Amino acid sequence: MTLTLTPMTEQELVRLLVSLEEGYAEDLVVHRGFTPEAARERSASQIRESLPAGATTEGALLRVGRVGDTEVGWIWVTLPTAAAPRQAWIHNIEVHPEHRGRGYARRMIQLIEAELAQREVPELGLNVFGTNTVAIGLYRSLGFEVTSQQMAKRIDPAG
């Protein structure tokens, strides 16, 4: 069966944000040195700020990936803003664990690119943690290129 993207409902968003907030908080602990409590707070506040009207937030494309009646994942993209007038941005793409390895993330990105092309959006960007080699490989195979890079080193306060 073919994967399709459908607009996300508010109920779907509320359900899906639980795992997004948890996963992002875990990444902040591992990759940015946040305490678990600070990471949970930061994760929740950033998502609330980015989606102030939930699923109906203006400029947010929230889509559920489906194969037939089965939800296999989802993608969240924002349309260009005054700060980035030519670039849409992938905030999150997720394939549910039991559906991974079947090309669904690739297809969701291709479908969102087609939707952006219809809207005459010329560029799509994203961030990815450097340790996420599977995602990096996918993005490179889809034509994404590194446009900036952040590096960090933890310093032991004891010397």
UniProtKB/TrEMBL annotation:
Domain of life: Bacteria
Keyword Secreted recorded: no
Sorted UniProt keywords: Acyltransferase, Transferase
Record has Acyltransferase as a keyword: yes
Residues in N-acetyltransferase domain copies: 18-159
One family name in Pfam for this protein: Acetyltransf_1
InterPro entries: Acyl_CoA_acyltransferase, GNAT_dom, YpeA/RimI_acetyltransf
Record's protein name: Ribosomal protein S18 acetylase RimI-like enzyme
Organism of this sequence: Micromonospora luteifusca
